[in-house]
Design a protein that fits this description.
This protein has seven helices and six strands, in the order βααβαβαβααββα. The chain is α/β, with parallel strands linked by helices.
Length: 233
């Protein structure tokens, strides 16, 4: 058992409430501030020697938001993948997007693939951005992959193992999550990495995502270490 977080998952909740609390006319001000905090988070993870980070950027349920907000969110995401990707590369962050991208247009998918390709050589932090992502959807898609292989005679269903199923997930070759941090006050996973968080510790804070700081991350990591120490006694 180790007290070091190897893979951190973050549910970045509270952007819209932050914008409303600050009386901005548009909730997008909250999302914009949330992106700034997210970029800082990558550096904080490097400072804390965390090699893997997965953030919940846009869930499958988020497609139910207003067309205007969804459009604005993807405009913000395109700006990140085209402009901020250079900041990620400078910081040694390798970007990988997970989720069901069938709902995205070809231009958005190309922007994402270009960002992944541009940062493929980076080694300081492996960043997974969960976009159009849902844990149940991921599990269903993985099951379909294995079913198709079995139907094609490439796989005996009786030989399917947990390891084999894990390799069919979006997060193949990435270790399971050690710690999940959720901001914004809710105490649930909300369909985030359901398979990969089976043994993760969960840390919840009422702080809204745009107000999250490196000090708060340090406190969460300290809490995680104390949990592991107490379990080891």
């Amino acid at each position: 058992m180790t007290n070091q977080v190897r893979h951190l998952g973050v549910i970045m909740d509270g952007n819209r409430r932050w914008a409303k609390q600050h009386m901005f006319a548009s909730v997008m001000r909250g999302h914009e501030k949330g992106v700034d905090t997210f970029i800082d988070l990558c550096e904080w993870c490097e400072n804390a020697d965390i090699p893997y980070l997965t953030v919940y950027a846009f869930s499958t349920e988020n497609w139910n938001r207003s067309k205007q907000e969804v459009s604005d969110l993807f405009r913000l995401m395109r700006r990140f993948f085209t402009d901020e990707i250079h900041t990620c590369i400078e910081k040694g962050v390798r970007v990988n997007v997970i989720g069901n991208l069938e709902y995205l247009g070809p231009e958005d998918i190309q922007v994402i693939r270009d960002a992944e390709s541009m940062s493929a050589h980076c080694t300081k932090l492996y960043l997974q951005i969960a976009l159009s992502y849902g844990g149940r959807d991921e599990i269903v898609r993985a099951a379909r992959k294995l079913a198709e292989r079995a139907q094609a005679g490439q796989l005996d269903p009786g030989e399917i193992t947990e390891e084999m199923f894990g390799e069919a997930l979006d997060t193949a070759a990435v270790p399971d999550v050690d710690l999940v941090i959720r901001t914004g006050g809710d105490r649930r996973l909300s369909n985030f990495l359901l398979w990969q968080t089976a043994y993760a510790d969960l840390y919840f804070t009422d702080v809204l995502w745009p107000d999250f700081t490196e000090q708060l991350l340090s406190e969460a990591l300290g809490w995680y270490r104390s949990v592991k120490i107490n379990k080891g006694k």
